[in-house]
Design a protein that fits this description.
Elements (H helix, E strand, L loop, with lengths): L5 H7 L4 H13 L4 H8 L3 H14 L2 E5 L7 E5 L2
Antiparallel strand pairs: 1-2
Helix pairs in contact: 2-3, 2-4, 3-4
């Protein structure tokens, strides 16, 4: 488990509860695809996508193309 990041905590302050849950899932589970985040968080896929979009805009998460399937993206918390 990573230590708390003050910048991340500040950025999460303006986010809805679903985005905060997505950030916690990524903190505990590590890099995941949107479907992996939805599965772990038990949130609907649409809610997960919106949360990831918001978190990426806030600079809380970053994404990259998945090595196993270039059609998918993998999200991780920023350092």
């Amino acid at each position: 488990m990573s230590t708390t990041n003050p910048d991340r905590e500040g950025a999460l302050g303006d986010c809805p509860p679903s985005a905060k849950l997505v950030a916690k899932v990524l903190e505990y589970e590590g890099p995941l695809t949107p479907s992996g985040v939805a599965e772990e968080s038990l949130l609907p896929a649409r809610t997960t996508r919106e949360a990831l979009r918001r978190l990426e805009q806030q600079g809380v998460v970053t994404s990259r193309v998945a090595l196993t399937d270039a059609r998918k993206r993998v999200y991780r918390l920023t350092e």
